[in-house]
Amino acid sequence: MSVKSFIAAAALIGAFPAAGQIDPEKRQLLQVGYNASFEGHAPIAAYAFYYLNRPQFQREDLTLRMAIAPVYFDSELGISHALGPNTDLGIGLAGGGFADSYNEVRGGKYRTKESFDGHGGGASVSLYHLFNPSYNIPLYGIVRGGAYYSTYTDTEDTASAFALPDDRASANFRAGLRFGGKEPVLFPALAMELAIWVESLNRGNSGDYGYNGDRDVKSSAELFYANAFLAYTFDRGDNLSVSITTGASVNADRFSAYRLGGVLPLVAEYPLVIPGYYYQEISADRFMLFNGRYAFALDARKHWQLTAMAAAAVVDYLDGHKQPGNWHSGVGGGVAYRSEKGTWKAGLTYGYGIDALRNGDRGAHVVGLSVQFDLENWLNKHRSKPFWWE
How far apart are CA 101 and CA 13, in angstroms? Predict the structure, then answer.
């Protein structure tokens, strides 16, 4: 892997979206994830980032959230009670390299000559309204608007005859309801979320690109999706997590399609995981995906777990990405580790893509590694004085 390729891999966190509400917990997390495929030439699938969340940042009503990768960052300054006792305001800023890169995967094959790098940045404003302040499980309404600019460059492998998309600005809007939620951590012990969202993506510069204009960028696209998630840890130390995610779209293109595959757990707000598949292998304009994971405690101190996971999806393919059958499934297993106080978490998994298409046959193998280091926990034990932001 070249240095440039590694940087691009570590910048996948650029796809990490802003949180669904202002996070009230102090956090400093180091997150690393990597997938290795054993069939064919796979797109790079990795992330590495530092996540900071700091309530009462300089003032009691301010919360600073940042996710920082080697060449990309995503941030938001939250202002509590900015528009009333139950309505918060968030001002976001994001940008950097490689986060808008596009890897063409079609028919189970990574098309390097049709793939390219993308870079960009933008700003957003969000409103978070709490509808039920007297309840233990919060119901938030979220409205977000923002502007983003993307620019594209060839990779080392992009074909000389392949015309890149024009650089473009876009105005994007998102609204939704979220009941409950889950922490931005690896393998949450306890969580419940029901959420429904609508997004509108409006491009200021659309048009054809590719080989003789054989593909296009739509001037606008609308996305509608929902997620249900539950995680629970039993007294004996076993952990269960299940989720159902579904989505539909209007006027989708390659830059707005839902992309399923891989086993990177923290690469997006709603990672569309299917074990054994390449990262973002399946491009769909509508889908329904089920994920389940069960971790069996192996020792009395509940440090080690044996894990089993499965995923199944039914999809309607994006135009140009159709393949035989609309069903995709994968299974897998591995081991997971959690240190005494939760400072370290790690998981090593093997996944088999039952329906993954490879050279005309079905079946593919992927190994994944995920590691989390809770820097906040570690510093609470070792530092002698607070940092400048505290």
Answer: 12
pLDDT tens track for 226-248: 999 999 999 999 999 999 999 99
Three-state secondary-structure class, residue 376: helix
Query: What is the per-residue pLDDT for 13?
Result: 45
**Sign of the four-CA dihedral 162, 166, 167, 173:** negative
How far apart are alpha carbons 98 and 219 in whole angstroms? 22
The whole-model pTM stands at 0.92
> What's the distance, CA 374 to chain centroid?
19
Residue 343 lies in a domain: yes
Residue 59 lies in a domain: yes
CATH of the domain at 265: 2.40.160.50
Above pLDDT 70, what percent of the chain? 93
The pLDDT of residue 36 is above 60 = yes
CA–CA separation, 288 and 225 (whole Å)? 10
Distances (CA, A) of 147 to 94, 150, 162: 10, 10, 28
Q: Which residues have C-beta within 8 Å of that of residue 268, sequence separation ≥ 6?
A: 15, 16, 17
Domains identified in the chain, total number: 1
CA angle 141, 230, 91 (to 5 degrees): 30
